[in-house]
C-alpha cells in the first residue's frame, strides 16, 4: 500500500485513497475465498457421484488451499499494479489543480511567518475578549450590589421621613434636634441602669456577708 498521505485528495473525496484501495482489496479477497469454497463444494458433489473414487474431502481441502494460495499470490501482484494506476490516474489530484474552497489562498497568499503572526494576534484578541468578559461580569455583580444598597438606603430614608413626620405631628420641632435629645436621654438611661446594677451587686454582696 502507498505511504503517501495524499491529504489534498482526502480533502476532496472525504476519505483517504489508501483506505479506498484497502477496502477494494478486502472485497476482492473475500470474493476469492467465497469462490474457492463454492468450487470445493462442487468438486465434492461431483466426486461423491463417481463410483470407486478414493479422493477424500481432506485431500480436496488441501488442493483447494494450495490453489487458493496460488491465486492469492497472483492476485496480490495484479492488485499492486492496479493500485498504482488508480492512485496515480484516478484518485490523484494534479499539482496544478486548486479546489474551490482553497481559491481564497490563491487570492490572498501568505507565508508561514505571516500565518504565525495572525495566530498570535488571534490568541491575544481571545485573551482580551476573555478579560473584558470577566470585567463586564464583575461590573454587573457590583451594579447588582449597588442596587441592593440603594434599596436599603431608600428604606432608611423613608423611615427617617416617617419619624420626622411623627415628630412634627406631636410638636417635637426639628427631627434632628429631637433625635439628639433622644440620644442624650438614652445615654442617661443607660447610666442610671448601670448605676442600679452596681448598687444591686453591692446589696447582694452585703446580704451574703450577713
Automatic annotation (TrEMBL):
One GO BP annotation of this record: cell division
Keywords per UniProt: Cell cycle, Cell division, Centromere, Chromosome, Coiled coil, Kinetochore, Mitosis
Subcellular localization(s) per the UniProt record: Chromosome, Centromere, Kinetochore
Main localization category: nucleus
InterPro entries listed in its UniProt record: Centromere_Mis12
Coiled coil ranges: 108-156
GO cellular component annotations of the record: MIS12/MIND type complex; nucleus
Pfam families for this protein: Mis12
Entry's family note: Belongs to the mis12 family.
Protein name as it appears in the record: Protein MIS12 homolog
Species for this entry: Dicrurus megarhynchus
High-level lineage: Eukaryota, Metazoa, Chordata, Craniata, Vertebrata
Chain's gene name: Mis12
Amino acid at each position: 500500500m502507498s505511504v503517501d498521505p495524499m491529504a489534498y485528495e482526502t480533502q476532496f473525496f472525504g476519505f483517504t485513497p489508501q483506505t479506498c484501495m484497502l477496502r477494494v482489496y478486502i472485497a476482492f479477497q473475500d470474493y476469492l475465498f467465497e469462490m474457492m469454497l463454492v468450487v470445493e463444494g462442487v468438486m465434492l458433489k461431483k466426486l461423491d457421484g463417481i463410483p470407486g473414487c478414493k479422493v477424500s474431502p481432506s485431500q480436496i481441502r488441501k488442493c483447494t488451499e494450495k490453489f487458493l494460495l496460488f491465486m492469492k499470490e497472483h492476485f496480490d501482484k495484479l492488485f499492486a499494479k492496479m493500485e498504482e494506476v488508480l492512485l496515480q490516474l484516478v484518485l490523484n489530484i494534479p499539482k496544478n489543480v486548486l479546489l474551490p474552497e482553497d481559491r481564497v489562498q490563491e487570492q490572498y497568499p501568505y507565508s508561514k511567518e505571516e500565518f504565525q503572526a495572525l495566530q498570535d494576534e488571534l490568541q491575544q484578541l481571545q485573551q482580551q475578549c476573555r478579560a473584558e468578559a470577566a470585567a463586564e461580569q464583575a461590573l454587573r455583580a457590583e451594579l447588582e450590589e449597588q442596587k441592593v444598597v440603594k434599596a436599603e438606603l431608600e428604606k432608611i430614608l423613608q423611615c427617617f421621613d416617617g419619624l420626622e413626620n411623627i415628630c412634627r405631628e406631636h410638636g417635637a420641632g426639628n427631627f434632628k434636634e429631637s433625635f439628639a435629645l433622644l440620644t442624650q436621654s438614652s445615654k442617661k438611661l443607660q447610666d442610671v441602669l448601670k448605676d442600679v446594677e452596681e448598687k444591686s451587686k453591692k446589696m447582694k454582696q452585703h446580704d451574703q456577708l450577713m
